[in-house]
Amino acid sequence: MKVLLIGGTGTISSAITRLASQLGWQIYLLNRGKRKNEFNSANITHIECDIRYEDEKTIREKLEKAIGKGNSFDTAAEFFAFVPDHVKKDFNILEGLCKQYIFISSASAYQKPLSSFQITESTPLSNPLWQYSRDKIACEEYLMQKYRERGFPITIVRPSHTYDERSVPLGVHGSNGSFQVLKRMMEGKPVIIHGDGSSLWTLTHNSDFARAFIGLMGNIHAIGESVNITSDESVTWNQIYQVIACALNVPLKAVHVASDFLDECSQGKYDFKGGLLGDKANTVVFDNAKLKQLVPGFCARVRMDEGIKLTVENVLANKDLQQEDPEFDAWCGKVIDALESAKNRFKF
Question: Closest Cα to residue 191, out of 247, 160, 260, 237?
Answer without folding.
Answer: 237
